[in-house]
Amino acid sequence: MMLEYFIAKRLITVRDYKSSISAPIINIAIAAIAIGIIMMMVSVATGIGLQEKIREKIAAFNGHIVITNFDSNQSEATLVPVSLQQSFYPKFKTIPEVTHVQAVAVKTGIIRTETAFEGIMFKGVGKDYEWKYIQEYMVQGRLPAVNDALNQEVVLSEFIASRLQLKLGDSFHSYFMKPNGYNVRNFKIVGIFNSGFQEFDASYILGDIRHVQRLNKWTTNQVGAFEVFVKDFNAIESVGEKVYQETSSTLDSRTIVEKYSYIFDWLKLFDINIIVILVVMILVATINMVVALLVLILERTQMIGILKALGANNWSVRKIFLYNAYYLIVRGLFWGNLIGILILLAQQYFGIVKLNPENYYVNQAPVYINIGYIALLNLMTVVVCFVVLLLPSYIITRISPVRAIRYE
After folding, report:
1. Closest to 305 (Cα-Cα) out of 397, 403, 408, 392
2. Rounded to an integer, what distance in angstroms lies between the CA atom of residue 183 and that of residue 189?
3. pLDDT band for position 20 (50/70/90)?
4. What is the CA radius of gyration of the chain?
């Protein structure tokens, strides 16, 4: 066993160490490390979690990339249809990053009941629709049977159902405008979803695409748009450019980052918030550790003098106190990681912290738990603290053995 480590271990375990005047300061330093790592874990987990959850919700209702006709129409409803006969449908063979392509069509309308009415966007989907993205948000009932013969089954949001006082199994009339009047369709609610994304929950209902084709007098070979899903969201911009290049000159493609730029610009602010919190927490933790180390050095001045008188060099004595400080850091990290992970798990499984969906697009604070970033935060804390602690340990080189032994 190394002499420096042996002495440091003895200093940590002796009784008078725990009852010394430095004990409160040491406890504060340990608490600062623990609180710092908790705050960093929570800020990173909630920041990344919120970003990913909102991305997932936008993609669930739009795909990652939307291909449409060039059209000056700014609404979600499609006026000019697109042919299904495309080189990229049903599989985008030229771009391996694309995982799925689905055809959809949107028609605006109004739901009217005996007591109220609500504007809606009827999103027609077909056999190729990837329901797994919506399935996560289903709270009642089942998905509509769009693979069978044309029927009136739809799913709508809990928000719309509540406003119109509708429930699972109810039927309702929908009115869709046409140049010389309106068309009426009767639909039956077979499922209710709640994404927590107010912009979508307040308007979307999902049903068979053949209803939109009939309302618009399109053929079965015409749709409103294509929704494209990619493997890696981080590569969405480069894949979006490839999709644009690979599609016909008569078609336009936009990523959801472009389509909902105001949301994604807002999400980027969370990266700044996370960085600020990390810097502040590490700064607070290191300051407390520096203070604790200085107190330990001053408290053991006589011991330093004796060790130097016996022939120990400055670096050996500094290593004793750095080992001591490292022990305190590890203790702080242990309790910080334990408490931090328990907090994140409690939020993930019980949703303790609620959020206003009108402001944050989610009902509760989502968390992203990943061993990789937790390990990185711990490593970063240890490295920064250790490097910073080298500076105050330099004071040991300034201590004279004769004066230190006589120090009271």
Report:
1. 403
2. 19
3. low
4. 31
